[in-house]
Amino acid sequence: GAVVSQHPSRVICKSGTSVKIECRSLDFQATTMFWYRQFPKKSLMLMATSNEGSKATYEQGVEKDKFLINHASLTLSTLTVTSAHPEDSSFYICSASPPGGSYEQYFGPGTRLTVT
Amino acid sequence: GIQVEQSPPDLILQEGANSTLRCNFSDSVNNLQWFHQNPWGQLINLFYIPSGTKQNGRLSATTVATERYSLLYISSSQTTDSGVYFCAVEQGGSEKLVFGKGTKLTVNP
């Protein structure tokens, strides 16, 4: 199967700082990647769709100025949490689908963000 | 939007037992996937199954698209099967997945 990586796997930052999370497709090119958020013991909720070479599209209720997404290449999307607050603490997971038409999504290992 | 309901929410088994997890969805879908989330949070692809039946070792899945449900069967369960099992669906060609709330499986030795 396809491989998606994320970095870092966990990060602790102070309130008010910004944190960047990287998502990479290692063995395929992805024009579209997806960012999800998961609270403890909860399901995954889609935050935004990252589009290579164009602006991301955000789901309703997700602040685009707080969660900046950049999809600068066909193998890399980044999510920057700006001016982080403790309520931004969560598990962030990205996904991508290899080209070929089946739309099967593969997920990265996730990044656990803790804001103190 | 589409609703995805999984049952049961929690399941506790003894090692060696069989189980069936269910996923109901409220509208027609283009894509349905089953995942296992391990204790470290990694989502592992189990099946891509918008319709029909597939088997992979001790696991198998069936999706009856016309009746809007999918079943995941786990046979001869092992302690390593513990974790949360998610069903996720996509409709309309958007590639966006909508997840159910998951079934938390605990397999005791």
Can you walk me through this structure?
By secondary structure, chain A is mainly beta. Helix content of chain A is 0%, strand content 51%. Chain A is built from no helices and eleven strands. Chain B is built from no helices and eleven strands. In chain B, the strands form two sheets. In chain B, strands 2, 4, 5, 9, 10 and 11 form a six-stranded mixed β-sheet that branches. Chain B is globular.
- Chain pair with largest interface: A-B, 23 and 21 residues
Tally of helical runs of chain A: 0
Overall pLDDT of chain B? 96
**Quaternary structure type:** heterodimer
Mean pLDDT of chain A: 94
Number of strands of chain B: 11
Question: DSSP helix count of chain B?
Answer: 0
**Which word captures the global form of chain A?**
globular
**Proportion in β-strands of chain A:** over 45%
Residues in helices of chain B, as a percent range: under 10%
> Structural class given helices, strands, pairing of chain B?
mainly beta
Poorly predicted regions of chain B: none
Order of secondary-structure elements of chain A: EEEEEEEEEEE
**Compute the gyration radius of chain A: what is it?**
13 Å
Q: What structural class is derived from the secondary structure elements of chain A?
A: mainly beta
SSE map:
The complex is a heterodimer of chains A (116) and B (109).
Chain A: E1 4-7, E2 10-13, E3 19-25, E4 32-38, E5 44-51, E6 57-58, E7 67-73, E8 76-81, E9 90-96, E10 106-107, E11 111-115
Chain B: E1 4-7, E2 10-14, E3 19-25, E4 31-37, E5 43-48, E6 52-56, E7 59-64, E8 69-74, E9 83-90, E10 98-99, E11 103-108
Brief summary:
The complex is a heterodimer of chains A (116) and B (109). Chain A is mostly beta strands and 116 residues long.
List keywords for this structure.
heterodimer; A: 116 residues; mainly beta; seven-stranded mixed beta sheet; four-stranded antiparallel beta sheet; 0% helix; 51% strand; B: 109 residues; five-stranded antiparallel beta sheet; 11 strands
